[in-house]
Amino acid sequence: MGGRPVLRFAPSPNGRLHLGHAYSALINADLAGRLGGLCRLRIEDIDPVRSKPAFTAAIVADLAWLGLRYPEPVRVQSRHMAEYRSARDGLAARGLLYPCFCSRGAIRAAAAEAPGRDPDGAPLYPGTCRGLDPAEAAERCARGEPHTWRLDMGRARTRDPFGYWAFDGDGAGERWVEAEPALWGDAVVSRRDVPTSYHLSVVHDDAVEGVTHVVRGKDLEAATSLHVLLQRLLGLPSPRYHHHRLVQDEEGRKLAKSRESPGLATLRDLGVTPEAIRARLGL
After folding, report:
1. Quick check: 7 and 46 in contact, CB under 8 A?
2. Are 237 and 29 in contact (CB under 8 A)?
3. Known EC number(s) (predicted)?
């Protein structure tokens, strides 16, 4: 992969950054320095309910306190919905997506009869709306009936194997990983409330920003198979990938905003220094 290496740190502004975020931000910046490249900041705020401007400001402040600086302008996903809608519509026009009108309760009930879980542990969608008559589906969409857009995995994945290059944390030691997107079933690529999903927007943005190396947590490793499939379908390049360890609490659980893991701002208020943060994370 020629040209200057580009990495990115891409937090969601739905809470305060904690040590797990600090670890990911720091190793991205460190690797960019070792490779002679740059690291971008991206604000992944496609969730209109949980994303808050105050959290975005706090993210910027926490990263500056850690000593991290990023090129301007910073990409903010909520400002690029038209781009995601265009990508989605292109896939739909090729017959690779279909609208799904099922509620979460209906999906759980249907999935109970045909058990199966995706890599995140959620019930696999049983394909209830896949066979809807196109005219009926179009009419329901035109009426404004709430729906997501799902990838028709049977049509989207090819028989020939494909995958991506994974690299060690120091930027070397590459190995080929065969993708297994079928494990996700007919994944959602466009939500009810916005014309995209994490999966669609992240592959689009990585291409737009020229990202060559993606460094993120192991909790997203399985999603990479789905991402490289979307890259193939959209004609986008695939970066190299590295999935780092997850920072855990004293009980061995992954740090998470949902569990109110101590934020960097809290540690800063207690007198913890950025140097101490690095030492605590083994960096």
Report:
1. no
2. no
3. 6.1.1.-
Which residues have C-beta within 8 Å of that of residue 77, sequence separation ≥ 6?
42, 43, 44, 45, 46, 196, 201, 205
How does pLDDT run across 105-140, given as a tens digit for each residue?
888 887 777 678 899 988 899 999 999 999 999 999
| Cβ-based neighbours of 167, under 8 Å, separated by 6 or more | 173, 174, 175, 213, 240, 241, 242
| DSSP 3-state of 12 | coil
Query: Tokens 């990202």 correspond to what residue?
Result: 211
Which residue type occupies 280? R
Closest to 266 measured CA to CA, from 97, 120, 131, 65: 65
Q: What is the pLDDT of residues 47-74, one digit of tens each?
A: 999 999 999 999 999 999 999 999 999 9
DSSP secondary structure letters along 20-76: HHHHHHHHHHHHHHHHT-EEEEEE----TTT--HHHHHHHHHHHHHTT---PSSPEE
Helices marked H in 36-179: 53-65, 81-93, 104-113, 134-142, 153-156
Cα–Cα distances (Å) from 51 to 12, 57, 75, 78, 233, in that order, read 7, 11, 15, 10, 29
Domain 6-280, second-level architecture: 3-Layer(aba) Sandwich (3.40)
pTM: 0.93
Residue 249 one-letter amino acid: D
Query: Are residues 184 and 194 in contact, defined by beta-carbon separation less than 8 angstroms?
Result: no
Q: State how far the Cα of 273 lies from the Cα of 266, in Å rounded to an integer.
A: 11
Q: Where are the domains of the chain?
A: 6-280
- The 75-76 sheet, strands edge to edge: 6-9, 38-43, 75-76
- For residue 273, the SS3 value is coil
